[in-house]
Recover the amino acids of this structure.
């Protein structure tokens, strides 16, 4: 403790020897002084500034021995791959409210899970949620495995999610690399390897920084730092707890990292969507094929657009005869392409052909309609 006080000077010494003893207890024996300093100040900052989220335990609770529910960690991490924390909170609370345990989710009707997921995108992830919950019940007796390899073998659990569950829920010392962590570490080290290739170097660096016994706290502290201080644009370096060790900050080149390969321009695809209403105002819906883009979701009939080809357009491309009227268009962006759908609407339709069903307008909210279809209906129904 005295040696550390001498090294870091009076500011650290003034915090008291208890703090130093605690920090030294968690020091990784392979760490250099600079690496230890980074980890120490990061965890101190996290202790006072951790973001509150319904799936997390606070740093104080963690110190008292409380650990997060792995079901909550898994669910939130899968959702966080889709969108921001702010949006995930309400989806997470809905899921936990309806399916409080992994056993409840494993036994849920697929249409209900897809409906609750609607709006989060990548519907294959919702289907994988169910498959994973069922694997936990059938192969692991209803408990998440506390082993990285076993986590990685679960349906839909990739490298990132397995590492996050292992570190956060089970304190397994494994590096976790999300977009926030990637940014903080690539700036700290001025890593010039473009992403995603540079991830290997980030993982190797994280291993040297990771404190004993606190890999989950360490990962979450980095996530919070990246989300609140080391932001993509104009990072708040003046109040950053780890600015002393940051090479990018010292050279004023923060926003140049992480280095990224320039994105390829997305192609624009086109097609048509057909909104049919019957005499009572119900809307004709059908189910998309189980596999492929938006697999298993509900939709109004559309032409056969794909990620590789445009679909037909015009009223002549409608799936059945009716008084079709042009009602505008929508544009939507998928991972690999933009899509523009012209919208055709027909009212008082007596017979619709093909597989599908008439749905009441006030029940559309509970349908597993992807965001694209909600946009189409919103234009067609003028909502
Ligand atoms: S000093 Fe600035 S660039 Fe470096 S980690 Fe902190 S916020 Fe990010």
């Amino acid at each position: 403790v005295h040696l550390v006080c001498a090294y870091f000077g009076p500011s650290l010494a003034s915090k008291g020897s208890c703090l130093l003893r605690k920090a030294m207890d968690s020091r990784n024996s392979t760490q250099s002084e600079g690496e230890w300093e980074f980890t120490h100040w990061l965890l101190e900052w996290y202790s006072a500034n951790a973001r509150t989220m319904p799936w997390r335990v606070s740093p104080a609770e963690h110190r008292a021995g409380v650990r997060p529910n792995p079901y909550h960690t898994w669910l939130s991490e899968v959702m966080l791959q889709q969108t921001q924390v702010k949006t995930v909170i309400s989806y997470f609370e809905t899921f936990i409210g309806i399916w409080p345990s992994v056993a409840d989710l494993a036994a849920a009707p697929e249409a209900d899970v897809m409906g609750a997921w609607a709006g989060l995108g990548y519907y294959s992830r919702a289907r994988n949620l169910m498959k994973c919950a069922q694997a936990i019940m059938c192969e692991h007796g209803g408990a998440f495995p506390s082993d990285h390899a076993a986590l990685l073998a679960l349906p839909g659990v990739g490298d990132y999610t397995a590492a996050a569950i292992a570190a956060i829920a089970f304190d397994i010392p494994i590096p976790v690399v999300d977009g926030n962590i990637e940014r903080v570490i690539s700036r700290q080290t001025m890593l010039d390897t473009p992403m995603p290739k540079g991830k290997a170097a980030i993982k190797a660096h994280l291993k040297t920084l990771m404190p004993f016994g606190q890999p989950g706290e360490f990962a979450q502290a980095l996530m919070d730092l990246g989300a609140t201080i080391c932001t993509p644009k104009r990072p708040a370096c003046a109040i950053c707890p780890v600015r002393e060790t940051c090479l990018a900050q010292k050279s004023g080149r923060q926003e140049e990292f992480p280095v990224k390969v320039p994105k390829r321009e997305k192609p624009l695809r086109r097609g048509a969507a057909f909104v049919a209403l019957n005499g009572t105002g119900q809307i004709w819906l059908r189910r998309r094929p189980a596999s492929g883009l938006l697999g298993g979701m509900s939709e109004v009939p559309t032409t056969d657009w794909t990620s590789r080809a445009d679909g037909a357009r015009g009223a002549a491309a409608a799936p059945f005869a009716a008084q079709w009227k042009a009602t505008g268009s929508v544009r939507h962006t998928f991972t690999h392409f933009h899509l523009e759908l012209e919208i055709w609407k027909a009212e008082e339709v007596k017979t619709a052909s093909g597989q599908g069903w008439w749905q009441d307008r006030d029940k559309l909210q509970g349908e597993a309609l992807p965001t694209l279809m909600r946009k189409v209906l919103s234009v067609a129904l003028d909502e």
